[in-house]
Amino acid sequence: MPPKSQRLAARSMAFVLAGGRGSRLHELTNTRVKPAVYFGGKARIIDFALSNALNSGIRKIALATQYKAHSLIRHCQRGWNFFSAERNEFLDILPASQRYNEQTWYRGTVDAVAQNIDIIDSYDIEYIVILAGDHIYKMDYELMIQQHVDSGAEVTVGCLTVDRPEASAFGVMAVDEKDRITSFLEKPKDPPGLPDDPDKTLVSMGIYVFDWAYLRERLHADLSDDASSHDFGHDMIPDIVSKGKAQAHRFEESCVRHTPEAPAYWRDVGTVDAFWKANIDLTNFDPDLDLWDRDWPIWTYSELVPPAKFIHDEKDRRGTAVSSLVAGGCIISGTEIRESLLFTQCHTNSYASLERVVALPYVYVSRHARLKNVVINRGVCIPEGLVVGEDPEEDAKWFRVSPGGVTLITQDMLDRREAAK
Predict the structure, then answer these.
(1) What contacts 121, CB < 8 A, 6 or more positions away?
(2) CA Rg, the chain, in Å?
(3) Nucleotidyl transferase domain: which residues (predicted)?
(4) What is the Cα–Cα distance from 232 to 230, expressed in whole angstroms?
(5) How many domains are contained in the chain?
(6) 385 annotated to a ligand binding site
(7) Are residues 332 and 266 located together in one domain of the fold?
(8) Number of Cβ atoms within 10 Å of the Cβ of 357
(9) CB 130 within 8 A of CB 211
(10) Which pLDDT tens digit goes with each residue over 156-206?
(11) Distance of CA 86 to CAs 4, 90, 397, Å?
């Protein structure tokens, strides 16, 4: 067992659950799991949970994968290969591999941890932080671990403070004056208010801290329970709340802000609208999510590419980008770009215009294209003269138009459109 003089993070590990498909992102997750979806110009969604663990001082990390994991595994192998086994630090990737029996993959979030008990035992840790790998936020997990130790709880649950009407879509925590969880309610019609603010309530972030010895016993019991759905939110957490001691940890107490006045930033980018908006929000003058913070960086795989290049300076043919983020390797050739985010190696051509566009890596935009309120999947070639974002009915014939009016474009959609001509 590590010496008690070590900080709590050094005696802990992070177990990141990264197997969920993210079906509400539709074609964006056809070839990749949700945590592997691109975000912020060069990162992936998974980088936020992993960076939070690393920046918090946690150097033992396990990543459980299942659905279409190749893109995620490749990203981690290339961008997260700097851990040193000699210093007892690592990122272990744990794909679902029928370790329990020959018929069973990961059956739920609890089962994903339970099937790897022997591996976690080998890490020689005292505390385990269970994380979802598909949210955008900055958080110091050691502060949550410290509260867990100080409170003597059997589980500590990371919670967001939200307005009561919004809480009906989440798992809700009713708490007492000391934030001990008194009941767990799944999507209640009338969420309970907080003791210190009746108009607010706490909802689960899917982040849990346990003493490993305690969780280990619970996992063995769950493995043998045929009535369990093997899920933390549906089974284990409600059971601990009803029979033991569960503590709520408020996100605002450990979130990492770039200024003291900044809001506690957390986003679930699980729909096309939410994904588009969170990326476009980064183009604001002072975005709530600070990607430039050198004290709490978002680590990721950085492809070796040249700087972005802007060319042509003629009337109606000027390479410009206003209130936009343009990643390395991009060539903006005679294109007007506004309030947009272009990932690595995008290439746009003369007389085209992009407004509030999120273009994933290796997108090619041909001449005279006009795009507005669009998400473009990786590697798509936009044909010459394509106009999207001006006629929703026409767009919906060929592309996916979200409830919020954002158009998602993939190469398959463009190919079907071309074949129909």
Answers:
(1) 216
(2) 23
(3) 14-283
(4) 7
(5) 2
(6) no
(7) no
(8) 31
(9) no
(10) 999 999 999 999 988 999 999 999 999 999 889 999 999 999 999 999 999
(11) 21, 9, 57
Q: How many other β-carbons are positioned within 10 Å of the β-carbon of residue 347? A: 19
Relative to beta strand 43-44, strand 38-39 is: antiparallel
Question: Is residue 290, in this structure, part of any structural domain at all?
Answer: no
Q: Which residues of 372-383 are buried (b: 16+ CB within 10 A; e: fewer)?
A: bbbbbbbebebe
Both 246 and 154 in one domain: the answer is yes
Residue partners of 344: CB distance under 8 A and separation at least 6: 41, 42, 303, 305, 327, 328, 329, 330, 361, 362
The HSE-up count of residue 257 (CA atoms within 13 Å, CB side) is 11
CA-closest candidate to residue 90, choices 63, 119, 60, 65: 60
- Quick: pLDDT tens for 335-361: 999 999 999 999 999 999 999 999 999
Task: Tell me, yes or no, whether 92 lies in a domain.
Answer: yes
Note whether residue 296 is domain-resident: no
**Which residues constitute the domain of residue 144?**
6-281
106 is in an annotated binding site: yes
Using DSSP, state whether 72 is helix, strand or coil: helix
CA separation for the pair 103, 56 (Å, rounded): 37
Please give the full DSSP string across 100-145, using - where no structure is assigned: S-SS----SHHHHHHTTHHHHHTT--SEEEEEESS-EE-B-HHHHH
Same domain, 353 and 272: no
For 263, other C-beta atoms within 10 Å of its C-beta total 10
Q: Is 187 annotated as a binding residue?
A: yes
171 annotated ligand binder: yes
Give the separation between CA 156 and CA 282, rounded to whole angstroms.
31
Bridge-based pairing of strands 171-175 and 200-211 is antiparallel
Helix axes 46-55, 70-79, angle to 10 degrees: 40
pTM higher than the cut 0.85: yes
CATH of the domain at 390: 2.160.10.10
- The structure tokens listed for 33 are 């799991």
* 65: its two tokens: 């994968």
pLDDT tens across 409-420, in order?
999 999 999 999
Q: What is the DSSP letter of 321?
A: E
